[in-house]
Amino acid sequence: MEIVRSNFQSQLPSILEDVRRCDFISIDGEFTGISKADFKARPFDTVPERYTKLRQGNMDYLMCQVGLCMFFQQPDGDYLAKPYKFYVTPQTFGHTDHGKSFEFTCQASSMNFLASHGFDFNKVFCQGISYLRPSAESKIRDTIMEKEEKRSTVTETPIAVKGEDKKFINGVMKKVEEYFSSTTEDDVQPLDLEPCSPFRRKITYQYVRFKYPVEAYMESVGEGREKHIQVSKINTETRKAKEQAVINKKLEDLQVAVGFSHVIKEISSKGKMLVGHNMLLDLMYFVSQFMAELPETYEEFKAMVTELFPRLLDTKVISSTYLFKEDIPHTSLDELIKALTSSLYQQINIVIPEGFPDYEAPDCKMEFHDAGYDAYTTGKCFAIMAHTIGLKATPPVQNLASNSKLLTPFINKIYLNRIQDIPYMNLAGPEVLPDREHLYYLSFPNTWTRQDINQVFFPSLIYVTWIDNSSAMVSLQERSENAQVKKLLSASTLGCVVVPYAEWHKQQLKSQSLSPKYEQASKQAVKRKHSGTESSTPGESDVKLVKVTKESETAAAQTSLKADKLFQESNW
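User: That's the sequence. What structure does it adopt?
Assistant: Structure tokens below.
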């Protein structure tokens, strides 16, 4: 269902009810840009480094379309799916932007890409739903209350005016005095002053309020050039009622301005499981655009995300495990759904109710890169994979529930692009600590080519990742050749500098002045690992599908599905 500004308020109650009742929500986003030109994702990044790079280089764009698909699992194992597609855009409240979250940039390549897939930018900028972070909402609410309290209790001394402005205010005060001398409180007909500039409306408020602090009630009416002040003679009780009505109206307008953030806050407060595909960027924008500014450090980000969204599941992580990797070598969303809907996998039945786009219809012409369709497809992929996991358990579990303990190994593990030896970002605990003893930093003259680098490490076979035209990261294909390569470190005839990764990384942390929290967290993780107190995590122990005990007819069961065979061996 397409949701824009014109139908958002009418649909909001049913959307929030769907959020409360559903079993899980699949998500997707479309953006006005992906990454800045200087963003450099390296295959040897650590998780904190990758987070910092994304935070600094990828968060200035707008998530302009959000797909949410609510899935409801039925007792017979079928699903009911309600796919929503929201167009969102920042809007001012009053005359204030209230924070950097209202600023965004556009990347030409991304805009062209969206346009080529039929994206309707008019719906973003003309019919986009507003949003406000909770902090901005709170700030605006406080400002409203403070201004109204000041207006009702403080009488300002009018500023001195002269020339035409003095002539203007004298004329206004003469009309107001005549109105008050000939009007009783029972008269309901107000005095409409002539339209004027904002400055003249301001001094009119000051002069009239100063002379008639109790009985004069003023409000601006009309729009544009017709905007003017309306003066009424009222008693104290009527004044209080009118002032409260003004406050109520502004607070109602504020709730409208909160807009799409109402939906995200409801998802967060109900602790709903969010399912995404390669979802890190979607997740970071869900936080930064609708909830709170991203913290500086990765450890703080982990704490914030697990507080806001305690149950996250990335279908790209699941599809990268041994459970599916053999049959699904390519895990982009379009390839994943193609494989999962083939004869290799037992299918599930998904019903889409009337009023929602029927993505299952034979004549459906939806394409990928529509957030609503992608969110639905992501949820369908998860439902099929969850069903498959249940069938592979011992004994098999039919109609595996989304809260089954069989899915615990995948919860809060987010796929990381372009890092071969760290399969995921672990929001649930310590990160995977890869062995990078076979990795070396190399600096050399800017005239060097790949052949020159090969000669340094000959006869070892190597992978090369260029950093710039005078440096690269080199990894050995055979880790057993480390001892031989280390002899090169003291050689001065190579015409280059070879530094082990651990030493180079330590220098980088120091030179870039990364937060000590990163180093402290890493040291604590290493200490736990070597002391044997660290709990098993994927990447550190074998996987065992153990015998399942049913907790109920529809619940999945306990398992000790543990760790690293879920993920493919590194190619490093």
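The longest helix spans residues 236-258.
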